[in-house]
Amino acid sequence: MLGTPYPIGELGKPWQQAEKDAWLVSQQIKRSYHDDVLCRFNDYPSTFKKIQYGELKYKDNQLADKNYPLLAFVPSNWQSQLPTILITGGVHGYETSGVQGACEFLLVHASGYLTAFNLVIAPCVSPWAYETINRWNPLTLDPNRSFYKNSPAQESANLMAFIASLGVEFLAHIDLHETTDTDDTEFRPALAAKEGTVFSDWGIPDGFYLVADSQSPQASFQKAIIDEVMKVTHIAPPDGNNQMIGADVYQHGVICYDKKALFLCGGITHAPYVTTTEVYPDSPKATRDICIEAQVAALEGGLRYLKQL
């Protein structure tokens, strides 16, 4: 099914700067990164150290300066003999449970895993997009397609520089995301308009699923996460073509992408165990709290599996 024409640009013509400017002017601040995220860390476990690894500097749709500190947390007592795990949320800022799930895990659960791992947690990689409930940054760039050398996306470039500065190899990377109805009603139509292509609606999976790395799928790792999440919420079934979001189902609740080839956040390390969570907050079977609980369950399922290696 073809989507309706997007209100910015002309059908079949890629956007130029005028269209990108028109898109930015149409965006509005809808919630507060300061209130929803930064203030949650006024008090956090002493087992972690807070690091500001960068700052986004943007102008909003009224050309006012907007600065966003980028936060990450590392163990206060880094133990070099332990494997290191990366946890990221909010690479797509509009995907709320990815941000809030990372925050909840850090504040309540993470300290219990520090005897087994060094945990590096970046709870909100794209705070401007969090505030405006967007997939893109103000330059109409998708940070989760921008993890490459000399990236023009500040969100991606700052995170890559921070990860490189740690000078460690990672055992695993779990990246927390959502798939929402607005993927098909707003964000993918906007992308098609920007690129001068035609949007085709493939439907949104109803439930939780994972996106493994096609270069290292790690089926048992993915299954351990799915099994834990099933205690909290339902797992998305495949469509009639045995696919989800246009990709073949690899195993129950799991599809695969080539993380590095697509410049995804999941490709920024050489970790052998990588996955991206996807919850569906618009499901009639889900709530905001269930989605956050599912993100935490995914992290705990993955970490418990890794502890047994």
Automatic annotation (TrEMBL):
Residues 82-184 form the Succinylglutamate desuccinylase/Aspartoacylase catalytic domain. InterPro entries: AstE_AspA_cat. It holds the Pfam family AstE_AspA_cat. Its cofactor is Zn(2+). Coiled coil: none annotated. Keywords: Hydrolase, Metal-binding, Zinc. One of its GO terms (molecular function) is hydrolase activity, acting on ester bonds. This is Peptidase.
